[in-house]
Amino acid sequence: MRLALIGGGFVKHTDNFHINKRIVELVEKTNPKVLFIPTASNDNEDYITEFTEIFEKQLECHVNVLRCINNNPSEAEIKKMINSADLIYLGGGNYINMMEKWKEYKINQRLVEALQNDTLIAGISAGAICWFKCGIRTNYEGEGYIESPGWNMINKIFCPHYNQMDRANEFHRLLLQNGNENEHAIALEDNCALYLTNDTYEIIGEPSKAWEFQVIENELLKQKFIERAKTSI
């Protein structure tokens, strides 16, 4: 498993550039092939343009884009695009729409297979939540935030954009409300990423922006994610 989880931020902003630069370095190839999947943003063309300009012009990658909102890619096309990528980057946006569309096109199955085959995958916000047991997202049908299930490739609860106070407070409440002893969770602020392999991790960005949580005897324990050479995730 090689998975880079990004708490949030904008591709074109300076704060996120060093994260994307490090992720490209982790591919360990010259001019790597990057597949961008912007489904959560409704395949927003401005987002695609920003991503392509950064990754092609500044990071020297070859970018391909998998569009499945207005386009109707075949199963063979999707398989070829995912299997040929050195790095797959999952964009942020509407988590529910993303998950529904990926299920429709069986992109979810292909992504899990790619991860299991050691393809490097990066996901920001919605593109990161999907890998966890569950995560907190914006309530698109009302106010506040709500918990949604993921694929449970990481048996923890996840919160992106942890620097947003209202989201952070709701995340704390949900962890305590679940009432599960020894519940574990991870939260990342914007402009911070966590790179995971099967037995190691690396914080990309400021370590003070990465947090871990545990519920013990109905109390929420919070501490900063302390970088080590090796650990079990």
TrEMBL record:
Keyword Hydrolase: yes
Entries under InterPro entries matching the protein: Class_I_gatase-like, Peptidase_S51
Top-level lineage group: Bacteria
Keyword Nucleotide-binding on entry: no
Alphabetized Pfam families for the sequence: Peptidase_S51
Residue ranges of coiled coil: none
Keywords, sorted A to Z: Hydrolase, Protease, Serine protease
Family of the protein in this entry: Belongs to the peptidase S51 family.
PANTHER family referenced in this protein's UniProt entry, alphabetically: ALPHA-ASPARTYL DIPEPTIDASE, PROTEASE S51 ALPHA-ASPARTYL DIPEPTIDASE
Protein name (Swiss-Prot/TrEMBL): Type 1 glutamine amidotransferase-like domain-containing protein
